[in-house]
Give the backbone structure.
Amino acid sequence: MDLNKKKDIAVEWFRSLRDQFCDAFIGIDESGNFERKSWPHKGKGGGEMSIMKGEVFEKVGVNISTVSGEFSDDYRSQVKGTEDSANYWASGISLVAHMQSPLVPAFHFNTRFLVTKDFWFGGGADMTPTFVDKHDTNLFHKKLEEACDVNDSNYYQEFKKNCDEYFYLPHREETRGEGGIFFDHHNTGDWEKDFKFIQDVGLKTKEAMISIINSHKDREWTEEEKNEQLYKRGRYVEFNLLWDRGTLFGIKTGGSTEAILMSMPPEAKWK
Protein backbone atom coordinates (compact mmCIF):
# COMPACT_ATOMS: atom_id res chain seq x y z
CA MET A 1 0.00 0.00 0.00
CA ASP A 2 1.48 3.37 -0.98
CA LEU A 3 1.73 6.30 1.43
CA ASN A 4 -1.05 8.36 -0.17
CA LYS A 5 -3.47 5.47 0.26
CA LYS A 6 -2.49 5.20 3.92
CA LYS A 7 -3.13 8.92 4.35
CA ASP A 8 -6.59 8.60 2.77
CA ILE A 9 -7.52 5.68 5.01
CA ALA A 10 -6.38 7.52 8.14
CA VAL A 11 -8.29 10.69 7.22
CA GLU A 12 -11.46 8.72 6.55
CA TRP A 13 -11.14 6.91 9.90
CA PHE A 14 -10.65 10.08 11.95
CA ARG A 15 -13.75 11.60 10.36
CA SER A 16 -15.77 8.43 10.95
CA LEU A 17 -14.65 8.23 14.57
CA ARG A 18 -15.55 11.90 15.07
CA ASP A 19 -19.08 11.14 13.88
CA GLN A 20 -19.31 8.10 16.16
CA PHE A 21 -18.27 10.13 19.22
CA CYS A 22 -20.68 12.95 18.38
CA ASP A 23 -23.60 10.56 17.86
CA ALA A 24 -22.83 8.83 21.16
CA PHE A 25 -22.65 12.12 23.07
CA ILE A 26 -25.94 13.36 21.61
CA GLY A 27 -27.45 10.07 22.77
CA ILE A 28 -26.23 10.85 26.29
CA ASP A 29 -27.17 14.54 26.30
CA GLU A 30 -30.28 15.19 24.22
CA SER A 31 -30.37 18.82 25.39
CA GLY A 32 -27.44 19.78 23.20
CA ASN A 33 -26.41 19.81 19.56
CA PHE A 34 -22.98 19.98 18.00
CA GLU A 35 -22.07 23.17 16.21
CA ARG A 36 -19.47 22.70 13.50
CA LYS A 37 -16.98 25.26 12.30
CA SER A 38 -14.30 24.79 9.64
CA TRP A 39 -10.94 26.54 9.70
CA PRO A 40 -8.19 26.92 7.07
CA HIS A 41 -4.55 26.10 7.73
CA LYS A 42 -1.85 28.62 6.84
CA GLY A 43 -0.15 25.92 4.77
CA LYS A 44 -2.57 23.50 3.13
CA GLY A 45 -5.70 21.81 4.40
CA GLY A 46 -7.51 22.69 7.59
CA GLY A 47 -9.86 21.29 10.17
CA GLU A 48 -13.37 21.14 11.55
CA MET A 49 -14.42 21.81 15.13
CA SER A 50 -17.50 20.17 16.65
CA ILE A 51 -18.56 21.78 19.94
CA MET A 52 -21.57 20.93 22.11
CA LYS A 53 -22.81 22.51 25.34
CA GLY A 54 -25.70 20.91 27.18
CA GLU A 55 -27.07 19.70 30.49
CA VAL A 56 -24.59 16.81 30.81
CA PHE A 57 -21.64 18.19 28.86
CA GLU A 58 -20.72 21.68 30.00
CA LYS A 59 -18.47 21.70 26.95
CA VAL A 60 -17.30 18.87 24.71
CA GLY A 61 -15.21 19.34 21.61
CA VAL A 62 -14.36 16.78 18.95
CA ASN A 63 -11.96 18.21 16.39
CA ILE A 64 -10.51 16.71 13.22
CA SER A 65 -7.85 18.18 10.95
CA THR A 66 -5.66 17.34 7.99
CA VAL A 67 -2.87 19.82 7.33
CA SER A 68 0.49 20.08 5.57
CA GLY A 69 3.28 22.60 5.22
CA GLU A 70 6.80 23.30 6.41
CA PHE A 71 8.00 23.40 10.00
CA SER A 72 9.61 26.63 11.14
CA ASP A 73 13.36 26.55 11.68
CA ASP A 74 13.03 26.86 15.47
CA TYR A 75 10.56 23.95 15.71
CA ARG A 76 11.85 21.65 12.97
CA SER A 77 14.66 20.18 15.08
CA GLN A 78 12.11 18.92 17.62
CA VAL A 79 10.34 16.70 15.09
CA LYS A 80 11.53 13.32 13.88
CA GLY A 81 12.45 12.90 10.21
CA THR A 82 13.11 16.55 9.38
CA GLU A 83 16.87 16.41 8.88
CA ASP A 84 16.62 16.73 5.08
CA SER A 85 13.30 18.51 4.70
CA ALA A 86 10.96 20.66 6.82
CA ASN A 87 7.88 19.34 4.99
CA TYR A 88 5.19 17.58 6.98
CA TRP A 89 1.66 16.19 6.66
CA ALA A 90 -0.57 15.46 9.65
CA SER A 91 -4.09 14.25 10.26
CA GLY A 92 -5.88 13.42 13.47
CA ILE A 93 -8.74 13.67 15.92
CA SER A 94 -8.76 15.40 19.30
CA LEU A 95 -11.47 15.23 21.96
CA VAL A 96 -11.89 16.99 25.30
CA ALA A 97 -15.01 16.70 27.48
CA HIS A 98 -15.71 18.95 30.48
CA MET A 99 -18.82 17.88 32.36
CA GLN A 100 -21.51 19.84 34.19
CA SER A 101 -21.45 17.43 37.12
CA PRO A 102 -18.34 17.41 39.32
CA LEU A 103 -19.05 13.72 39.89
CA VAL A 104 -18.30 12.91 36.23
CA PRO A 105 -14.63 12.97 35.18
CA ALA A 106 -13.18 15.10 32.41
CA PHE A 107 -11.85 13.12 29.45
CA HIS A 108 -9.17 13.68 26.84
CA PHE A 109 -8.45 11.56 23.77
CA ASN A 110 -6.49 12.03 20.57
CA THR A 111 -4.91 9.99 17.82
CA ARG A 112 -2.93 11.23 14.83
CA PHE A 113 -0.94 10.13 11.79
CA LEU A 114 2.10 12.28 11.06
CA VAL A 115 4.35 12.14 7.99
CA THR A 116 7.78 13.70 7.49
CA LYS A 117 10.60 11.71 5.92
CA ASP A 118 9.32 9.08 8.35
CA PHE A 119 5.74 8.39 9.40
CA TRP A 120 4.12 7.27 12.61
CA PHE A 121 1.02 7.26 14.80
CA GLY A 122 0.66 8.96 18.14
CA GLY A 123 -2.02 9.67 20.70
CA GLY A 124 -3.65 8.37 23.84
CA ALA A 125 -6.50 8.81 26.28
CA ASP A 126 -6.67 9.95 29.89
CA MET A 127 -9.27 10.71 32.54
CA THR A 128 -9.30 13.51 35.12
CA PRO A 129 -11.88 13.14 37.89
CA THR A 130 -12.48 15.73 40.59
CA PHE A 131 -13.35 12.97 43.05
CA VAL A 132 -11.62 9.67 42.37
CA ASP A 133 -13.90 6.68 41.95
CA LYS A 134 -11.80 3.52 41.78
CA HIS A 135 -14.51 1.68 39.86
CA ASP A 136 -14.31 4.35 37.14
CA THR A 137 -10.52 4.24 37.14
CA ASN A 138 -10.49 0.45 36.85
CA LEU A 139 -13.08 0.47 34.06
CA PHE A 140 -11.28 3.16 32.08
CA HIS A 141 -7.94 1.35 32.32
CA LYS A 142 -9.55 -2.03 31.61
CA LYS A 143 -10.94 -0.74 28.32
CA LEU A 144 -7.59 0.76 27.32
CA GLU A 145 -5.82 -2.44 28.31
CA GLU A 146 -8.22 -4.38 26.07
CA ALA A 147 -7.34 -2.09 23.17
CA CYS A 148 -3.67 -2.68 23.81
CA ASP A 149 -3.65 -6.41 24.56
CA VAL A 150 -5.51 -7.44 21.41
CA ASN A 151 -2.61 -5.88 19.49
CA ASP A 152 0.43 -6.47 21.73
CA SER A 153 0.55 -7.62 25.35
CA ASN A 154 3.43 -5.22 26.08
CA TYR A 155 1.65 -2.06 24.95
CA TYR A 156 -0.48 -1.33 28.01
CA GLN A 157 2.24 -1.23 30.66
CA GLU A 158 4.57 0.76 28.40
CA PHE A 159 1.97 3.29 27.30
CA LYS A 160 0.46 3.59 30.80
CA LYS A 161 3.92 4.49 32.12
CA ASN A 162 4.30 7.04 29.32
CA CYS A 163 0.98 8.61 30.32
CA ASP A 164 1.87 8.82 34.00
CA GLU A 165 5.12 10.56 33.12
CA TYR A 166 3.64 12.86 30.50
CA PHE A 167 0.55 14.14 32.35
CA TYR A 168 2.55 15.45 35.29
CA LEU A 169 2.72 19.06 36.47
CA PRO A 170 6.30 19.54 37.68
CA HIS A 171 5.60 22.99 39.10
CA ARG A 172 2.84 21.44 41.26
CA GLU A 173 4.56 18.09 41.78
CA GLU A 174 1.32 16.29 41.01
CA THR A 175 -0.27 14.22 38.25
CA ARG A 176 -3.15 15.64 36.22
CA GLY A 177 -5.60 12.80 36.80
CA GLU A 178 -6.00 9.03 36.92
CA GLY A 179 -3.86 8.42 33.87
CA GLY A 180 -4.54 6.30 30.82
CA ILE A 181 -2.19 5.58 27.91
CA PHE A 182 0.08 7.79 25.84
CA PHE A 183 2.29 6.90 22.86
CA ASP A 184 4.20 8.65 20.10
CA HIS A 185 6.39 7.70 17.13
CA HIS A 186 4.48 4.44 16.93
CA ASN A 187 5.66 2.53 13.87
CA THR A 188 6.28 -1.20 14.18
CA GLY A 189 6.93 -1.60 10.46
CA ASP A 190 3.46 -3.07 9.95
CA TRP A 191 1.20 -0.11 9.06
CA GLU A 192 -2.04 -2.07 8.97
CA LYS A 193 -1.36 -3.50 12.43
CA ASP A 194 -0.53 -0.05 13.79
CA PHE A 195 -3.65 1.43 12.21
CA LYS A 196 -5.82 -1.28 13.78
CA PHE A 197 -4.34 -0.39 17.16
CA ILE A 198 -5.26 3.26 16.60
CA GLN A 199 -8.81 2.22 15.75
CA ASP A 200 -9.08 0.01 18.83
CA VAL A 201 -7.90 2.81 21.14
CA GLY A 202 -10.59 5.13 19.78
CA LEU A 203 -13.40 2.59 20.04
CA LYS A 204 -12.48 1.40 23.54
CA THR A 205 -12.15 5.00 24.77
CA LYS A 206 -15.67 5.65 23.49
CA GLU A 207 -16.99 2.58 25.29
CA ALA A 208 -15.37 3.63 28.56
CA MET A 209 -16.61 7.22 28.34
CA ILE A 210 -20.21 6.24 27.62
CA SER A 211 -20.30 3.81 30.55
CA ILE A 212 -18.70 6.16 33.08
CA ILE A 213 -20.71 9.23 32.08
CA ASN A 214 -24.02 7.35 32.15
CA SER A 215 -23.29 5.92 35.59
CA HIS A 216 -22.91 9.37 37.22
CA LYS A 217 -24.66 12.00 35.09
CA ASP A 218 -27.96 11.92 37.02
CA ARG A 219 -26.48 11.97 40.53
CA GLU A 220 -27.10 15.05 42.64
CA TRP A 221 -24.12 17.24 43.50
CA THR A 222 -23.44 20.30 45.68
CA GLU A 223 -22.00 23.74 45.02
CA GLU A 224 -19.04 22.81 47.20
CA GLU A 225 -18.34 19.86 44.90
CA LYS A 226 -18.71 22.14 41.87
CA ASN A 227 -16.13 24.52 43.31
CA GLU A 228 -13.69 21.65 43.74
CA GLN A 229 -14.24 20.77 40.08
CA LEU A 230 -13.40 24.33 39.05
CA TYR A 231 -10.17 24.24 41.07
CA LYS A 232 -9.29 20.92 39.44
CA ARG A 233 -9.89 22.50 36.05
CA GLY A 234 -7.32 25.15 36.92
CA ARG A 235 -4.70 22.41 36.98
CA TYR A 236 -5.99 21.20 33.61
CA VAL A 237 -5.52 24.67 32.15
CA GLU A 238 -2.01 24.95 33.59
CA PHE A 239 -0.91 21.68 32.00
CA ASN A 240 -2.34 22.44 28.58
CA LEU A 241 -0.81 25.90 28.40
CA LEU A 242 2.57 25.09 29.94
CA TRP A 243 3.40 21.49 29.03
CA ASP A 244 1.12 20.03 26.37
CA ARG A 245 2.96 19.08 23.16
CA GLY A 246 -0.20 19.17 21.08
CA THR A 247 -0.83 22.80 22.02
CA LEU A 248 2.72 23.68 21.02
CA PHE A 249 2.49 21.71 17.76
CA GLY A 250 -0.71 23.50 16.78
CA ILE A 251 0.70 26.93 17.51
CA LYS A 252 4.04 26.27 15.82
CA THR A 253 2.41 24.92 12.66
CA GLY A 254 -0.15 27.66 12.11
CA GLY A 255 -3.25 25.88 13.31
CA SER A 256 -6.48 27.56 14.38
CA THR A 257 -6.06 29.19 17.80
CA GLU A 258 -9.73 28.55 18.54
CA ALA A 259 -9.34 24.85 17.73
CA ILE A 260 -6.07 24.56 19.65
CA LEU A 261 -7.66 26.07 22.76
CA MET A 262 -10.80 23.95 22.43
CA SER A 263 -9.43 21.95 25.36
CA MET A 264 -9.90 24.87 27.74
CA PRO A 265 -12.82 24.49 30.16
CA PRO A 266 -15.55 27.14 30.00
CA GLU A 267 -14.89 28.04 33.63
CA ALA A 268 -12.06 27.41 36.11
CA LYS A 269 -10.82 28.73 39.46
CA TRP A 270 -7.56 29.08 41.34
CA LYS A 271 -7.02 29.18 45.08
Notes: The chain is about 45% helix and 25% strand. The mean pLDDT is 94. The two ends are 54 Å apart (CA to CA).
